[in-house]
Amino acid sequence: MHREFLMGNEAIALGAIAAGVNLAAGYPGTPSSEVLETVAKRRPRGTYVEWSVNEKAAMEVAAGAAYAGARVMVTMKQVGLNVASDPLMSLEYIGVKGGMVVLVADDPGPISSQTEQDTRHFAAFSKVPCFDPCSAQEAYEMVQEAFDYSEKYGTPVFLRPTTRVCHGYASVTVKDADEYRVNSPDGFIKDSGRWVIFPRLSLRNHEKIEARNETLAEDFSSYERNCIYPPDRRNDASGFGTAAGRDDASGFGTAAGRNDASGAGPFAGTGKKGIAAGGISFTYAMEALKDSPQSARLFKVATPFPFPEKLALEFLDGLNEVLCLEELDPVIERELTYLCGKHHLPVKIFGKLTHHVKNAGENSRDSVNQNISDFLGGAAGQEDISRSQAQSPSQPSSQSSSQSSSQPSLPVRPPVLCAGCPHRASFYAVKTAMKGKKTIFCGDIGCYTLGNAMPLDMVDTCLCMGAGLGIAQGVRRIEPDTTCFAFVGDSTFFASAITGVVNAVYNQANMTLVVLDNSTTAMTGHQPHPGTGRTVMGDVTAKVSIEAVLRGIGVSVVETADPLDLSASVACVKRVAAEPGVKAILFQSPCIAITKPSGCLHVDQDRCIRCGKCIRELGCPALITDNGRVCVDASLCTGCGLCAQVCPVKAIGGGDGNE
Amino acid sequence: MNKNIILCGVGGQGTILASKLIAAAAMKKDLPVMSAETIGMAQRGGSVFSHVRIGEGICSPMIARGTADLILGFEPGEAVRMLPYLKPDGQVVVSSRAIMPVTATLSGSSYSGDVMITYLREQVRGLYVVDGEQACRKIGSPKVLNILLLGAAVESGALGFTEEELREVIKERLPEKFHEINFRALRYARERKETDH
């Protein structure tokens, strides 16, 4: 054993390696991406890792390996699970031979996602058991236990961390390489009665799954990560109120005014209150109760599905009120409410359903402190809150909300396309070419979603991976006089846009597809994809050509342009958009993060007429004003040269850009 | 030692590396450490932060309002934004150079770093202002602001680590060709103080 300072996602990866994972597959998505990257980086010899083309492909590759007895992990973010749901729903009926951990990272906030969907619901829906870690250390250990449960019960299992667990760092105690489990798969054994899904098999296996999950719920009640604090709760004689050495007078119960003098057991004088929490919210609750652990019984739910009912009943025993602290949906709250009804327990359950906890957005130390303080009616969880309220760190955009009258208003900093980003040039070329025409610009998922911001304002719709193509087709069916564009990035193209192109060609749509090919998966951290000619294991592989794919499908016009050559790009857009049917433009220019800058531009102040066109039209962060003068921020400029081409008096020059 | 440290700035300023170095210094002293940071969409020119927590008994990587011992502000407006996290006698080390958001440039609205620094002076007793722009020019790179601020935090006494301890982790963590310039950035605050006296 040794200690390493690890991100939660890195800890999960090392945990999987320690558990002898033979194969890992996934698709990038914040906050999950670092898991697969770390498995690839730290893998022992013989472990296979791939970025699959999307989550569905990853799930199927992993299923095949698990059929052959391998330990496998599939990684994705929560919306990726929607893509992988088709194979997973059926796979649960078939089951696995080797252990399978499906890592799905949820994103309360949401910080980098379209939805605040809760994978714990998906667990109940798909009947797949779910583990919910609260810290990097726990995630490291839990992933190993999850593999064991998966094999013991022959089912895939979810490991479902949330952003603050995935991206939180901690000094984690991890195994040395010689302590890793070695798993040697015995290969695929033919048995069509087991591996071929038919209605009869599904009925039989459905019955088995229901029975299994009942057994598993029992099993989970003694799983040590589901637990009740303080742990000696059943020992009435040594109530932890006294054990902790706290005097009753200062207890929170007294402040709450709910304590009945006759209250027997450990909660005498504390109002018989409990708090149930899972994931990162549990750690927030622990921090809040650190100085007064006797003030409430605390229930940590590490396996939200199947719910550990037996342990939950022990937790509820003797309580009057319970506060549920969890992010996303009220899963624990519903389970406890259900249990109270089922067992006629006189316990009030509070949480999101009762509007005692906000039902959207992420929890914070401060929100949990406040929730607990309100619940206990005392000073629990109140640290020294001497200053005015902080803005949520995940949404630091709005103006100051401070009560302090003297605080100056703070700058708003929405995320923007980087200085020199080729997407800016592509959007600007299309915008310029289509000026005055009735158009709709359907966007997609990636950095280029940021093309929606002023002044570009070039994203009219964005829904989910690959959806822009279908939406462009649908709008055009209803508005035949609109020129419809769909923008899609290179990685998104391979992940889920190809079916949209086939649909358009087959159904004789009229639309222009614009592929923004920057040779990487930029938003999630520059992962390789089928068009890059590299794999996550470092192998060189044949590049899949986007142009050849489009031509193969039957797109008649496919033109390639360098978006940083503005006039050529504008001409290209005009030409292609005027063609009938389904046509495509490939804008090819690498992401600035994977290329060296070509020098910095400068503004000739004698020539500059201060018209502000460059700033007004491009919104490049490297173009700034200084006392009315337009200047280039040398620390940001990459020398892309777009502003030099936009300047009406040729006052911007330098770099490799067009002078 | 128990420390809650917040590093804040604008995406791309190097806050993450600085928080990693602090954590590495803590690890070297066998201290428990946790941290959390902004990753993903907000990194693209948005407000970013890192929380670093050092010491026994930490359950969560996140810092609660009013409990930070030190704020390392890479940008004056961002330091003001995080001020509610500072404990009453906490310290702030801040670069005076403001970074204009694109929105401000577009709308022509004014955003002044001086106003932010003035406000910080009113609010924070333990304030240490670094002329980040001038210092980076003198040292010879705009990329050393993070190390410069760490050096200033050492000098202010609020970091809890020595210059030598940070030198060690820089040596271990950064490519050798960047050692010298970062060492210069690290000692800049101390040397300036010595010449001031």
Please give a structural write-up.
With 659 residues, chain A is an alpha/beta fold. Chain A folds into four domains: 2-220, Rossmann fold (3-Layer(aba) Sandwich), CATH 3.40.50.970; 227-242 and 262-394, Rossmann fold (3-Layer(aba) Sandwich), CATH 3.40.50; 422-594, Rossmann fold, CATH 3.40.50; 601-654, Alpha-Beta Plaits (2-Layer Sandwich), CATH 3.30.70. Chain A has a six-stranded parallel beta sheet, with helices on both faces. A five-stranded mixed beta sheet of chain A has the order 9-11-10-12-13, with helices on both faces. In chain A, strand 12 (321-325), helix 14 and strand 13 (348-350) form a beta-alpha-beta unit. Chain B has a single domain (3-196), classed as Pyruvate-ferredoxin Oxidoreductase, domain 3 (3-Layer(aba) Sandwich). Chain B contains eight helices and six strands; from the N terminus they run E-H-E-E-E-H-E-H-H-E-H-H-H-H. In chain B, strands 2-3-1-4-5-6 form a six-stranded mixed beta sheet, sandwiched between helices. Chain B is globular. In chain B, 57% of the residues are buried. Classes of the chains: A alpha/beta (659), B alpha/beta (197). The interface between A and B is large, with 69 and 60 residues.
Query: Uncertain spans of chain A, ≥5 residues at pLDDT below 50?
Result: 233-269, 379-403
**CATH evolutionary superfamily of the largest domain in chain A:** Thiamin diphosphate (ThDP)-binding fold, Pyr/PP domains
The CATH first-level class of the largest domain in chain A comes to Alpha Beta
Bin the strand percentage of chain A. Answer: 15-25%
Name of the CATH homologous superfamily of chain B? Pyruvate-ferredoxin oxidoreductase, PFOR, domain III
Strand order of the largest sheet of chain A: 3-2-4-5-7-6
What general form of chain A does the structure show? globular
Question: What would the CATH topology of chain B be?
Answer: Pyruvate-ferredoxin Oxidoreductase, domain 3
Could you say what the CATH architecture of the largest domain in chain A is? Answer: 3-Layer(aba) Sandwich
